[in-house]
Amino acid sequence: MDVKFNNRDPVYIQVIRHFKEKIATGGYEPGQEIPSRRELANNLKINPNTAQRAYKEMEEEGLIFTEGNLPSRITNDPEVIRNVRKELILEAVHSFVASVQSINVPLEEALHLVKENYQRNKNEQEESL
Amino acid sequence: MMRYLKLTNFELSRFFKIYLVLIGVTFVMQLLGVVFTSNKYLSAIKELLESGMTQEEALKQWGPFSFYNVTSSFWFFAPVALCAASLIIYVLFIWYRDWFGKNTFAYRLLMLPTARINVYFAKATAIFLMVLGLISLQIAFLPIESHLLQSIVPAPYLEEQGINQMISSFDSLRILYPTTFIEYLTHYGVGLMAVLVVFTGVLFERCFRWKGILLGVLFAGISLIVFFLPVIIQEFVLVQFFYPTELFFLMVLTGLIVMTGSILMSNYLLNKKIRV
Amino acid sequence: MIEVKDVTKKFGRKPVLKGVSFTANKGEITCLIGINGVGKTTILNAIMNLTPLNSGEILIDGERINKHSYEKIAFIPDAITMLPNMKISDAMRFMADYYQCWNQKRADEMIGFFKLNPNDRISTLSKGNTAKVNMLLGLAMDVNYILMDEPFSGIDIFSREQIADVFTSHLVEDRGVIITTHEINDIEHLIDKAVLLNEGVVLKEFNAEEIRESEGKSVIDVMREVYLK
Fold this sequence. Notes:
The structure holds three protein chains of three kinds.
Chain A: H1 11-24, H2 37-44, H3 48-61, E1 64-65, E2 73-74, H4 78-102, H5 107-128
Antiparallel strand pairs in A: 1-2
Helix pairs in contact in A: 1-3, 1-4, 2-3
Chain B: H1 2-50, H2 55-62, E1 65-66, H3 67-71, H4 74-100, H5 106-110, H6 117-152, E2 158-159, H7 163-169, H8 171-176, H9 181-237, H10 244-273
Parallel strand pairs in B: 1-2
Helix pairs in contact in B: 1-2, 1-4, 1-6, 4-6, 4-9, 6-9, 9-10
Chain C: E1 2-11, E2 14-24, E3 29-33, H1 40-47, E4 55-60, E5 73-76, H2 88-98, H3 104-113, H4 127-139, E6 145-149, H5 157-167, E7 176-181, E8 193-198, E9 201-207, H6 208-215, H7 219-227
Parallel strand pairs in C: 3-7, 3-8, 5-6, 6-7
Antiparallel strand pairs in C: 1-2, 1-4, 8-9
């Protein structure tokens, strides 16, 4: 687990985002066991209180759940997972739109370039596999 | 109490190597002293005999050889002086090594979960025990040295001495080996008092550095005056007022006051003023 | 909680601390930040009663420091304080001899974690390993609070990484830690609270995660604002 944190966003939010990405891409399966708070702090080299905070927030958002004294697990709720995916996509689109608009690119041109670029990237990835 | 004993043991073990060297040097030098002084004597006698003198005449000229000839020689006295000087220096060094060593051990000692005065007591006890140790070893060495002497110098030339005579024949030893219990208490009591006062002086310096040296000297001066107050009164105020025994007990009292003062002052300095 | 209340301290005529106040909570890592010579070490020494104060007071869980406090609070100075001729095992035995709070199991665990040889003499250790032994002697005490003076200065990068790992491990968990540093880069994500010092005063005391959340600033951003103002 290697995450590069930036210094200006709260670390707990960056941790949550890291979890969301892994949930959305299937890096974490529904119901999968996740590291304890201490293990997470140790793995990510962050303050244990921050790891605690991230888990607390994720629990409240329903991303993870804990039963009794068992280790916490990723949610089994497909609705939540769909929402996470949607949230990440919307976020990406949002920032894309913002940067494209800031340099006055017409939508058609931008979409054309996106398609082209997306395809090329995918091909390259497949070749390298 | 446990920690005080552990600390005392620790302080003893820190000086142990040098202590062994001192003991070794003393023993070897004194044995050499026996060999050299007796050989010198015998060769002088031999010279006289060769020049035609009889044994009686030679004995008359040089006198019989006794252990006094050994104890009054450089070989005997030098290691005793060395031991004394080492321990006197160590009274200061036992503190300064904790601040000025390669690693500042003072941190460790001051952060022990025990009253800091125990560090002071442990160091004083260690010095005291090392002095006693050296003195008892010296007593143990004397018969061995005397045996060696007897095996070198033939009986007619030898004046036999018991340990008491050996000791009293050596002026510098007399202070260390009192003959009565009271004398014993006073000599070592005064010694211990001196150590405690010097320790307090060192602590003054450690607390206030340059200013502390002045305060330390001042403290030692006041201690000295307090201790000798009965004598001063006897000499200058109430001339010849006290009987000798009264004077003695008054000085025991002032001595105890000085020791208590040193301990209380050191306790205060260690708890409130010390710095690393 | 460790409470430093309006502490002043002069060395001769030179004031080093001019009314310093801050608190450090149990279960949190509090970082005293400032360039060298602003009195960070003096504050730690004062907390441990290793230097007298001119005024102010320091409370540890509501109490002034006393001989029993040394079983509850450990200080790791910037240099090791054991005698050079001691072996690591001798140093550990010394600690076990005097402290009830010494935890030999934890010490052995750290010997393994730091890859140290207990039979090595302290005088023969590299700088990095000396720093690790120094850490070990403090961290193996079952205390509520640990003070560390510049644990990262003057050692190689790999030793720094290993020592930084300590902060995210169970070795520090649930304890209150005060750490001093003049370089925040390595540990920005590790600390809870930052106390910015300059010329004997506290310029700012803040929670690192809160300032990121409320103002979107990194610890270094805040330092830049405060120190270059």
